[in-house]
Specification:
The chain is mostly helical and 85 residues long. It has one domain. Helix content is 87%, strand content 0%. The protein has three helices and no strands. The chain starts with a helix and ends with a helix.
Length: 85
Amino acid sequence: MVALVNLITNPLLTYLLAVASRTGAWAVYPSAGFIVLFITGEVAVVVAEWRLLLWALGGSGSRMLRVSFAMNAASALAGILIWWL
């Protein structure tokens, strides 16, 4: 269930960031606008996944928030590594 929640939200943010990069928001180095978009998007995804995890699995709100944060930290790091390779 945890992976499914990530698969629901991740493609949307990835698409948004891809569109931003194609419009020149990210050339060689990330621009301030792209960084703001990236961080804002990741925060929104963490909150959305947290709420989805609470709805689907129940449990402790703080635990599900930590799970959501960990999922997105790993996902964001993997995305950054893939982008630069």
